[in-house]
Design goal:
Elements (H helix, E strand, L loop, with lengths): L14 H7 L5 H5 L7 H16 L2 E6 L5 H16 L3 E5 L2 H18 L6 E3 L9 H10 L5 H14 L16 H7 L18 H11 L2 E5 H9 L10 E4 L5 H8 L2 E4 H11 L14 H29 L4 E5 L10 H14 L6 H26 L5 E8 L6 E8 L3 H9 L4 E6 L9 H7 L5 E5 L5 H4 E4 L11 H19 L3 E4 L3 H11 L8 E3 L5 H10 L3 E4 L16 E4 L10 H12 L4 H18 L10 E5 L3 H4 L3 H7 L4 E3 L2 H8 L4
Parallel strand pairs: 1-10, 1-11, 2-4, 2-5, 3-4, 5-10, 12-17, 12-18, 13-15, 13-16, 14-15, 16-17
Antiparallel strand pairs: 6-9, 7-8, 8-9
Helix pairs in contact: 3-4, 4-5, 6-7, 10-11, 12-13, 13-14, 14-15, 19-20, 19-26, 22-23
């Protein structure tokens, strides 16, 4: 990452110079017709400039409408260009990444009085591999007409695309197709590849090394951490936007996971006995006949191993945490070990670089699967929690073995904060009770400067908070809670003429409410998460008054400015399910340290999520609408006031008639 350079040899930005860009008569105002000089934006830009000048860590909460993207981009670009350094901007949602790349950064290229370079950094798997696409056609891996048709479409697209990025495809490729044509690090020949000069990935990667600004997502950032800095170029500062999600992303990258679906998919790509196709079938039989037999034996071993799991723990949906080593025979160790050795033994007989890479990659994956499986079965990684997830499916259940660290703050300090001198952590929702104590404790972050900057929006005039106290609590029996909740959701949808997000904390409750309301609400299209892609649902939502029933992915990162959205209905306070293995282990960890988990973990975490849901409504100074929280615990329980106090100041009501009046334009 970055080295500890002597700050005296770096040029310091003058805060007045930074501030001048945001003045009422500054460059941004001259280039942006709707630009308004906002003191919150200036304050944030100055804090970011101080962090870059002084090798400091800062934490800034910037309310919606502050313009935080420009507030960190301007000083980051100024400092990077002045000192020929690199700044990483890491986001969580695709929405924010697209805003930066398609709006904010191009705007600054036109506005700033000097040139700068930037690049979008994506993981390997996002890029088309020209060599692998050609090889897929030559080896005849596909036996399905749709797969063959998509491969032909990919050849046509490859001739015209400038990026080679999967998300730019005019169609959604089948997983089985992209698996064979997408770039994979362990199958890359690098400079020895015949398509190296035309390679989309390496062409983009060359831009990374010359860029002043690198835009990444949190997943790629922590992939870089997990691979000791080998994924991204060395950088000198990082801005974490949407930083409230860092703990969850980092936790997953530091953990391990093995599933029957992933193992079977891997083995089928090597050799599928049903179709007689796979990556080894183009090689001579004398070299691979034993490997094919071993692949079949390993597949049988996978089925036997996971069937033993299902016999012990069932085939229905469940998450089961293990407090001690499970009594399960590791019948997969020898088949995977033998397959690994066979592929290693194959390497000396191969004179084709492509075949050699395939054999080496297959051997490495067998080795990695075996190590992960052994680690999960032994369960001796200190500070980890282990569990089994079973998901019922039509043909066969999916079983996933997971193990992740309970507390990541020491790893975050060691791997991120101690290695990067300049860190800016920001979001619209980082604080609880007007402090950053929760996030700092969870991440081990110790900023030199902190700031909570309120939104410039007129929430008392733009938003109404509806908090009814006459509904049953979620914990009460379902025959009372479900009809009452559904009836109130129906009334709110009718009051707003559609134009509503209904946010849930579980698919189970979402489906039950949707099934009750779908036959009744005929005046508006109803979209349930899972029936369409989120982007397609949002596209339809913008086109006509309609209703989205959504879970996690609709609580944050969704931006619907204007009249299309006028009502956000939150059905339950977003507490984590206490029986979730990771949540349960984190609660136990806090109790061992004599910290009240409800007060210091569960409530703050739910508050941040609630603030994210609330934030979907008011996106511009002209938006107007109602946020309804139908969980009566917020008005009946003592902790409810903490949730309300963490929301922007707006008028509150418990009367449905006031909601109707407000939506009709009343005060």
């Amino acid at each position: 990452m970055s080295c500890r350079e002597n700050p005296r040899i770096l040029r310091r930005m003058k805060l007045d110079d930074v501030t001048s860009y945001f003045a009422a008569d500054g460059r941004l105002a001259r280039h942006l017709s709707r630009f308004e000089s906002r003191p919150q934006q200036v304050e944030m830009a100055q804090a970011v400039a101080r962090a870059l000048n002084d090798e400091a860590h800062v934490m800034v909460e910037a309310g919606t409408g502050t313009g935080k993207s420009l507030a960190y981009l301007v000083p980051a670009i100024l400092w990077a260009v002045e000192n020929n350094k690199k700044v990483v901007v890491s986001t969580y949602t695709k929405t924010l990444q697209e805003q930066l790349l398609n709006h904010d950064i191009p705007l600054l290229r036109e506005t700033l009085p000097f040139p700068f370079r930037y690049a979008l950094c994506l993981g390997n798997e996002n890029y088309l591999s020209l060599r692998r696409m050609k090889r897929a056609a030559q080896t005849g891996l596909f036996n399905d007409s749709q797969e063959d048709e998509q491969l032909n479409d990919l050849f046509n697209w490859a001739r015209v695309t400038k990026t080679g990025i999967k998300s730019d495809l005019p169609f959604e490729p089948l997983p089985s197709v992209w698996e064979e044509v997408g770039r994979q690090k362990d199958l890359c020949q690098g400079k020895n590849c015949e398509t190296y000069q035309q390679c989309f990935y390496f062409r983009e990667r060359r831009k990374w090394y010359s860029a002043h600004l690198l835009v990444v997502n949190h997943s790629l950032f922590f992939a870089n951490v997990a691979h000791a800095g080998a994924v991204l170029p060395r950088f000198d500062a990082v801005v974490f936007d949407e930083a409230q999600n860092l703990e969850e992303v980092a936790t997953q990258f530091l953990g391990l996971e093995v599933s029957n679906v992933a193992l079977n998919y891997f083995l089928d790509r090597l050799y599928n006995p049903r179709t007689k196709r796979g990556r080894v079938t183009h090689l001579p039989d004398r070299l691979t006949v034993e490997i094919r037999k071993q692949v079949v034996k390993t597949r049988q071993a996978v089925d036997a191993f996971f069937n033993e799991l299902f016999d012990q723990f069932g085939r229905g949906d469940r998450s089961l945490r293990f407090h001690q080593k499970p009594q399960i025979n590791n019948t997969l160790f020898l088949p995977l070990k033998d397959l690994h050795e066979m592929f290693k033994g194959l390497e000396p007989h191969l004179d084709n670089d492509e075949d050699l890479l395939e054999a080496s990659a297959a051997a490495e994956r067998c080795f990695t699967y075996n190590n992960s499986l052994i680690a999960w079965l032994n369960q001796d990684l200190e500070g980890y929690v282990y569990w089994l997830e079973i998901a019922a499916r039509k043909r066969f259940p999916r079983a996933t073995l997971k193990g992740v660290p309970v507390n990541i703050k020491e790893e975050m300090r060691r791997q991120v904060f101690d290695k990067t001198e300049r860190v800016v952590m920001t979001s619209a929702t980082l604080s609880t009770a007007r402090t950053f104590e929760y996030v700092k404790e969870r991440l081990g972050f110790e900023p030199a400067e902190e700031a909570i900057l309120d939104s410039p929006f007129d929430y008392p005039g733009q938003a109404l908070l509806y908090l009814p106290d006459d509904l049953p609590e979620p914990g009460e029996e379902e025959r009372r809670f479900l009809p009452a909740l559904s009836g109130r959701v129906e009334a709110l949808i009718n009051a707003s003429g559609g134009k509503t997000f209904v946010l849930f904390t579980s698919y189970d409750l979402l489906n039950k409410v949707f099934n009750l309301l779908d036959p009744k609400l005929r005046d508006y299209p109803l979209y349930k998460q899972g029936d369409l892609s989120p982007s397609r649902m949002l596209e339809k939502f913008r086109q006509e008054p309609s209703v989205i029933f959504g879970t996690n992915s609709f609580w944050q990162g969704v931006d619907i400015p204007g009249d299309a959205l006028s009502s956000v209905v939150i059905t339950k306070l977003p507490f984590d399910v206490p029986s979730d293995p990771l949540v349960e282990a984190r609660v136990e960890d806090l109790k061992k340290r004599r910290i009240n988990p409800f007060r210091h973990f569960q409530i703050p975490r739910a508050i941040i999520q609630l603030r994210q849901g609330f934030g979907r409504l008011i996106r511009t100074a002209h938006d107007r609408g109602v946020v309804s929280i139908l969980d009566s615990r917020i008005v009946r329980r003592g902790y409810g006031e903490q949730f309300i106090a963490s929301l922007p100041p707006c008028r509150r009501t418990g009367e449905l008639a006031e909601v109707q009046d407000f939506l009709n334009g009343g005060g």
